[in-house]
UniProtKB/TrEMBL annotation:
GO cellular component, as recorded: membrane
Keywords attached to this entry: Hydrolase, Membrane, Protease, Transmembrane, Transmembrane helix
Membrane-spanning parts: 167-185, 194-212, 218-238, 245-268, 283-302
Species whose genome carries this gene: Hydrocarboniclastica marina
Domain Peptidase S54 rhomboid: 157-303
Lineage: Bacteria, Pseudomonadati, Pseudomonadota, Gammaproteobacteria, Alteromonadales
Domain of life: Bacteria
Protein's name in the database: Rhomboid family intramembrane serine protease
Length: 480
């Protein structure tokens, strides 16, 4: 479930310079500093393989996972065991090596119990080699140096962890929400107080994570706790005023208008539910919750003095065009509620022609067209929505729409080769090799020789980059 407040529109006459600066800093930290992590990991892998440590650790690791799954009822360990059995033999050593190097809990277990599995000479060789890899490579990875470690909370790390991320998807998702929420809070508080409260929320978010996760969790990185603080501040700024929220649940999305503070327990409940419902998740739900409550508390405690907000911020102006759009949009939604799908489709189509920048309209048209997958409109809106998702770098939505179309209408009205090619390129960019393989299979079925050859060449290059020799050879044979 996603809930985003959308009461304020961005005023480019007063650009949110600090929010934009924070976004640039986060991107630069990831692109310039954290980009070195991959090299360190690769060097660690090479050193690990050179010392032939996998032969020693692999049997111990399987025993360790079974112990965690059976004795401690660790669901994540059971998932890893299941995944381990499904890894192709050609990729098993490479994947298992990465798992072992990035599992500090197993490393600690092996240090404590290595004598039960290895002879003294083997134990000494393993201990020396592993300590060397740890100090020269793994301890120098950005998350290990400046991430927030639950068992070693340092003041500097409480700030620095907020500017690092675990991957491009993590970064881009956070920066999107930072922009959506930050510009409004910056306008309300002014740049200096906005920056200070943003960092304070991140500090409390980190402390909540460390306190609740205990002393054996992985380092925390990411701006999501600070951004959750912005959500808490935004909600508290409006208090009991009814404001608009965009929400997305499963495949359904819409707008609602509700008292702002009503969203606070709803959002907090969502984080708590996900924390208990998805054990072992890499998402720091408790950090989100800590930031959310910190942001709301700051406004609640200091809004009459230090964080006093200009009344003009709360008086949201409505221009005539927006008022007309909302009126006609509400009428279209009312048609949907009465199950007048044909009439609703005509209303949304007219709105989409007049407001091509309101992508929510295309989403409605797509959902309506999906009710009759054999009709040409479903193909048309699918292609439009895929193009929009690609332009906005929403890869997960692009894949979801593409997959859904294959199931409902792929054989009735096949997508063009270029559409499958777009999914293939996007999947490779996102590192989703499974989707890339499926997209290439669909592309092959179209018989478009030129695009197939181009895709083959690209796949050879990408598989070589990832050192997936077997897959690269498969596509080389196709080219031959």
């Amino acid at each position: 479930m996603i809930i985003i407040p959308v009461e304020r529109k961005l005023d480019w006459k007063r650009p949110p310079w600090l929010t934009l600066t924070l976004i640039v800093v986060n991107v630069l930290v990831f692109a310039l500093y954290q980009s070195g992590d991959s090299k360190l990991i690769q060097q660690a892998v090479e050193q690990y393989q050179r010392n032939d440590l996998l032969v020693l650790e692999a049997p111990v690791y399987e025993s360790y996972l079974r112990r965690q799954a059976n004795v401690h009822e660790d669901a994540q360990a059971q998932e890893q065991l299941d995944a381990l059995s499904e890894i192709p033999a050609t990729e098993r050593d490479q994947i298992l090596t990465l798992w072992l190097l990035q599992d500090p809990e197993f490393y600690a277990y092996a240090q404590e119990n290595g004598g039960r599995y290895w002879q003294d000479a083997e134990l000494t060789r393993w201990s020396d080699a592993r300590a060397n890899i740890q100090s020269r490579y793994l301890d120098r990875i950005s998350s290990q140096r400046f991430g927030l470690k639950p068992d070693e909370v340092r003041i500097a790390d409480l700030v620095l962890y907020q500017f690092m991320h675990g991957g491009w998807e993590h970064l881009l998702g956070n920066m999107l929400f930072l922009f959506l929420l930050g510009f409004a809070v910056e306008q309300a508080l002014g740049a200096p107080r906005y920056l200070l409260t943003y960092l304070i929320c991140g500090v409390f978010s980190g402390l909540a994570f460390a306190l609740i996760e205990g002393f054996d969790g992985p380092p925390l990185v990411g701006a999501s706790g600070s951004i959750s603080g912005l959500m808490g501040m935004y909600i508290a700024l409006y208090g009991r005023q009814r404001i608009r929220f965009f929400y997305f649940v499963g495949v359904y999305f819409n707008y609602l208008k509700a008292p702002a503070l009503l969203m606070l327990p709803l959002w907090a409940g969502k984080e708590l539910w996900q924390y208990f419902a998805i054990p072992g998740s890499n998402v720091a739900y408790m950090a989100h919750l800590g930031g959310l409550l910190a942001g709301a508390s700051l406004i609640g405690l200091f809004h009459k003095n230090w964080l006093k907000v200009e009344e003009a911020f709360l008086d949201v102006p409505e221009d005539e065009q927006d008022a007309q759009f909302r009126k006609e949009y509400a009428m279209a939604l009312a048609s949907l509620e009465r199950f007048e799908f044909k009439h609703a489709c005509a209303q949304f189509t007219a709105l989409w022609r007049r407001y091509p920048d309101r992508w929510i309209l295309l989403e409605h048209l797509y959902q309506l067209a999906k009710l009759r997958p054999a009709e040409p409109a479903y193909l048309d809106h699918t292609v439009e929505l895929m193009g929009l998702a690609l332009r906005q770098n929403r890869f997960s939505q692009l894949t979801e729409v593409w997959d859904e179309y294959q199931k409902l209408a792929g054989d009735l009205r096949p997508l063009a080769a270029a559409d499958h090619n777009r999914v293939l390129f996007a999947a490779l960019k996102a590192g989703d090799l499974k989707t890339a393989d499926r997209a290439f299979g669909r592309l092959q079925a179209t018989g478009e020789a030129l695009l197939i050859e181009e895709a083959c060449r690209l796949l050879v290059v990408e598989m070589d980059k990832r050192q997936l020799g077997t897959r690269a050879e498969k596509y080389r044979r196709m080219l031959a």
